[in-house]
Structures are given as C-alpha cells and as structure tokens.
Amino acid sequence: MGAMDGPNMNNEDVSFTDLRGQISKFKSLQIKHNELLDTKKTDLQQKKDLVDKLAREIDQLEGDLSAMEQRKLDLDRTIQEADKAYSRIVGSTQTLASVIDSEMTRCQDTKLM
C-alpha cells in the first residue's frame, strides 16, 4: 500500500477525472460558502451599524427626557409659587375690601352724628 492510498483503495480505483470533479465541487462549495460568509458579514455589520445608531438615538432621547423632566419640575414649582402668590393676593384683596368697607361704614356713621 502506498502513502497516497486510502482505506480499501488501490491504484486502479483512482480516477484523475473523478478527483478533478471532486476538486471542482469543493471549489464550487467554497465559492458558495464565501458568498454566504460575505452576506453574513455584511448583515452583521449592518446590524452593528443599526445598534450604534439606535444607541445614539437612545442617548439623545435620554438627554431630552432628562431636560424635559427638569423643565417639568421647574414648571411645577412655578405653578405652586404662582398659586401661593395668588392666594396671598386674594387674601390681601379681601382684607383690603373689608378694611375699606369698615372705614366707609365708620365714615358714614361719623357723618350721621
């Protein structure tokens, strides 16, 4: 048995045409495999690019949300302060109206005497 002989093979069983055909089939499989590999690499890169894009959009949205949350808190505080000021103004206006009414009554009572 020679070094190139496989199991149950002898020199008469080897056909160079068959070997050439097998090599050709392997080359064809290699081309298809390489095309599939390139497709998968491209798909992976596109998905990575999409992930990067989405990560940037998420970061931007988180920044926007943070700013909006702060603005909401500022607006809430402004509204609370405005409500308090309004209540004080209403209270002061009622007190002023009461004082004026009382003074008007006193002035009318004084004139009557």
Explain what you see:
The protein is mostly helical and 113 residues long. The protein has one domain (24-112). Helices cover 86% and strands 0% of the residues. It has one helix and no strands. It is rod-shaped. The N and C termini lie far apart (149 Å).
| Principal-axis shape | rod-shaped
The H-and-E topology, N to C, reads as H
CA distance, first residue to last residue: 149 Å
How many domains? The number is 1
Query: Any low-confidence stretches, pLDDT <50, length ≥5?
Result: none
Largest sheet: none
Radius of gyration: 46 Å
Instruction: Assess the beta-strand content as a share of residues.
Output: under 5%
Number of H- or I-type helical stretches = 1
Could you tell me the number of beta strands?
Answer: 0
Short description:
The protein has 113 residues and is an all-alpha fold.
Task: Write the topology of this structure.
Elements: H1 16-112
Essential attributes:
about 110 residues; mainly alpha; 1 helix; about 85% helix
